[in-house]
Amino acid sequence: MQTHQGETIQMAVKSVIGQNQTNFWGASYSFVAGNYAGGLLISKAIAVPAEAEAIPSADPRKTRMAGLPVCETEFINQGLQRYHVKTRTTKQAVTAFMGIITPHAKLLQQPLDLGDRQAHTLEYEAYVGEVGEQNTIDPAAQFLMSSLSALIADSRGFWQGVWQRSEVTVGGNDELNLAIHYNVFQLNQAAGRDGRTNIAAKGLSGSGYEGHYFWDTEMYMLPYFTYTNQPMARQLLYYRYQTLPKARARAREMGVNKGALFAWRTINGEEASAYFPAGTAQYHIDADVAYAVGKYYEITRDLDFILQCGFEMVLETAKFWENFGSWHQVGASSRFEFHTVTGPDEYTALVNNNYYTNRLAKHNFELVGYLANEIRQRYPNKLADFGIGPADLEKFQKLADHVYLPYSTDLQINEQDDSFLSKPRWPADKSTPENFPLLLHYHPLTIYRYQVAKQADTLLADYLFPEDLSIDQLKREYDYYEGVTTHDSSLSRSIFSILAARMGDPEKAYKYFMDTARMDLVNLQKNTADGLHLANLGGSWLALVAGFSGFYVQDEVVHFTNHLPQEITRLTYRMKIAASVLEIDLSVDKTSVTVISGPIPTYGVSVNGERISLVKSSSYEK
């Protein structure tokens, strides 16, 4: 810093946010005189930004300006301030305390003398309380619970654990390697850890989508935590369980008298979608949540979680599908169908038998039976607590067996829905760069008339269930749907990358991956100003792990297959399988799996199609 007279003062700032003590933030300010000698008065306050002007926009991805919160400030004493922040409309509130935690509170009363050229340091700490706690918090006691050094140790320990379990290194491209680390960092800092919060679509980086949570969490971001940080994955799933009462109420509002329907867009469990054809009608979120529960259990064997809340969520979503769907007699056979739904592709709304929705609902039914059997093996009489018996399980299995999955015998591919393939393709003269994303340039009803996809839909189901189809069918489906997909959604390219790698086309996989990894760095979706695309950040991790290393789990076997493109000289990453941390190391001619810590996994391990045995502290290489 420099005065008007050219005298200089050096200031060093160290700031840290508590990672386990999540209510605390701390900062230290150190001052050393350069050629300045004299007094220095230091004051610290929480900045309240000026009210931003609302700018009308037709872009549904942008926030609707609701006005900045109101901040009331109270100076409790010279070393302690209280800030009461509340929203303008709902009056939700939080109280924050900030004070000096070094023995220099007097510095707020008299100038600091910098004439001795010695370093002088002030340490501030802020504590954020919960609504209703402001009358019970003893701020001084709270400040004494921690210190800046303790917060630094807390933060350092947390992030060391993150990288110990989930380090990713990409060889051959330093900028790409840095981008992946940045993506993983953003995922970790944005994730709710208390069971009451989730992951906003823009994380902590912007106001787009107004902080709401979507199905993106379960399908794109939760996998990272499921395979690297199971306690955090459990908390993210527990958030959904906390909203289950409102999900039951939502199902009744939608005319379904049993089961639960999770909100497609929400914070507190209530549906916040402003446009129901592309929002509320995405009933598939029920099956997405169930799928995530199943994957969490598959890798953790956390039966306690299943008994406490996981099985109830899977059961309630299955009941929804049972009562939402309907039987349809076709010739001598009957099939179970789901009508007037919207799949992941928001450019195709309110259709019958969306393949993705039906396939996930089928899995939801099957998962009830699987988890019920897991419970029954340990606790033979426990299922009665959930109000189901053998007859109910037989009913769900029958439904699973008869869920209709549309298929084109002419093209020999799974159909996105009953009508998608019969529509005309989007006109070529409207497919110019200035017309994308389509949602900003055409009325939804115009888009709905055409065979055009915003993002991976049927192909997303193909990714989730690799056992469903042969490589030949996957190639046919990939080629077809690639030709009608605009990738106007940030969720799309990572799935196309993963499937291209799985098909043996690493160059196409790399192209889509680079778009995924650099999306916000180059503003590919043209709306990074509203915040990062958090689901895409999860997708970049999936593209590396599920794509280039071919990772998936099936029937208690962990599979790795080397699909590394020539542009990446080496890929090394870590993941947590049950209590074991594995390191997977791939180069063009080598694939190795090493047990870094924990016991030898009880899961089977397959590398490049060959079952192997792992030994602790040594690796398998092929």
Automatic annotation (TrEMBL):
Keyword Ligase: no
Location of the Glycoside hydrolase family 65 central catalytic domain: 182-541
An example Gene Ontology molecular-function term: hydrolase activity
Keywords (A to Z) from UniProt: Hydrolase
Protein name: Glycoside hydrolase family 65 protein
Keyword Hydrolase among UniProt keywords: yes
Lineage top rank: taxon: Bacteria
Database matches in InterPro entries: 6-hairpin_glycosidase_sf, 6hp_glycosidase-like_sf, Glyco_hydro_65_M
Organism, as annotated: Levilactobacillus fujinensis
UniProt xrefs under Gene3D superfamilies: 1.50.10.10, Maltose phosphorylase, domain 3
PANTHER family linked: GLYCOSYL HYDROLASE-RELATED, GLYCOSYL TRANSFERASE
